[in-house]
Specification:
Layout (H helix, E strand, L loop, with lengths): L31 E4 L17 E4 L9 H14 L13 H14 L5 H12 L5 H13 L5 H9 L3 E2 L2 E2 L12 H11 L14 H11 L21 H11 L3 H8 L12 H10 L7 H11 L10 H12 L1
Antiparallel strand pairs: 1-2, 3-4
Helix pairs in contact: 1-12, 2-3, 2-4, 2-12, 4-6, 6-7, 6-8, 8-10, 10-11, 10-12
Length: about 325
């Protein structure tokens, strides 16, 4: 404010009648834009910019393609970032911010908002291992050193005989499949390859625990749920398989879960999770992505939830 805008933001008008000026560029439905005016005199000297005016582009129809859905989701996330750089105001800031940044990175967004988000994430304390693992993975994917955070994560692991057997949601809680998968992914972000007393990489120990340790599995071997021994979850199982890299004989049941409408379990979260973590086992990837498109709100979000919107954006762009 108070200075001319950078060249990349300028829209030239030679009519002299700015009241009737039309901006003909492609605008995103559901997006929010800000316009101001400067004046250039006959000597080419440009004035300071006037107060900005907010213009909301209201969506008239639902997205029809994954490309359009991704553009709207990107705009919605950028428009709903908080002043402190975070997403969400309901206590899930680290979860939502990590996932929003994951989606926006794939959308090739590179602006101050991304830097604010990363700054918020780095400076915020994760109060459980799920959030800490996601924070580590996101920061690492944006080129930041995460060694200190990974060491904190290791200290919260379930350790027996100097070997890691996984993570629970908090230290001393029973280990579960999702937190163990996320923790193992986060371990891989360490700049050095830590090993146990037998010279086995710690990441290998996490994979081994997921594969053979019964308490981490669901009611059926090689299938995983949110809670050990309880209902199987496509989202959690896909996350685990992205760590353990099982063969098609193991993932076949997950492949067969896809329904006629493209969804997995008729659920946005499960469908997005499988698209992100196991895209190669999906019989009809385009149908799965189209299911997400049909469940998107016209404003560009999924359920007005930044975490879910970031998750679906990542799934559409994988």
């Amino acid at each position: 404010m108070g200075t001319p805008p950078p060249k990349r933001l300028k829209i030239a008008s030679t009519t002299g009648n700015i009241a009737n000026h039309t901006h003909s560029a492609d605008l995103v439905e559901g997006g929010i834009y800000y316009y101001g005016v400067t004046f250039v005199d006959q000597d080419g000297v440009e004035s300071v910019i006037c107060d900005l005016v907010q213009v909301n582009i209201t969506a008239q129809n639902q997205s029809l393609t994954k490309e359009e859905a991704a553009v709207r989701a990107t705009a919605w996330l950028q428009n709903n970032q908080q002043a402190n750089g975070a997403w969400d105001t309901g206590g899930k800031q680290i979860l939502a911010t990590s996932q929003a940044l994951n989606g926006l990175r794939l959308a090739n967004v590179q602006n101050a908002g991304m830097n604010y988000g990363l700054f918020y994430l780095r400076g915020s304390k994760a109060d459980n291992t799920d959030y800490l693992s996601r924070k580590i993975i996101t920061l690492f994917n944006h080129g930041q050193n995460v060694d200190e955070a990974v060491n904190r994560l290791i200290s919260k692991s379930y350790i027996y005989n100097a070997q890691i057997y996984g993570w629970g949601i908090n230290r001393l809680f029973m280990a579960d499949a999702l937190d163990t998968a996320l923790g193992t992914k986060a371990l891989a972000c360490l700049s050095i390859d830590l090993k146990d007393s037998d010279e086995t990489p710690l990441t290998d120990l996490g994979k081994l625990a997921l594969e053979v340790w019964g308490p981490l599995q669901g009611p059926e071997n090689t299938k995983y749920g949110w809670v050990p021994g309880k209902d199987t979850s496509p989202f959690v199982s896909a996350a685990v398989y992205s760590v353990t890299l099982p063969g098609t004989a193991i993932t076949g049941w997950l492949t067969n879960l896809q329904q006629a409408n493209g969804a997995f379990e008729n659920n946005i979260t499960d469908t997005a999770g499988v698209l992100i973590w196991q895209p190669d086992i999906i019989q009809d990837k385009a149908a799965a992505q189209l299911y997400l498109v049909t469940t998107q709100l016209m404003n560009g979000s999924w359920e007005n939830d930044p975490y879910l919107t970031g998750l679906c954006l990542e799934a559409l762009l994988k």
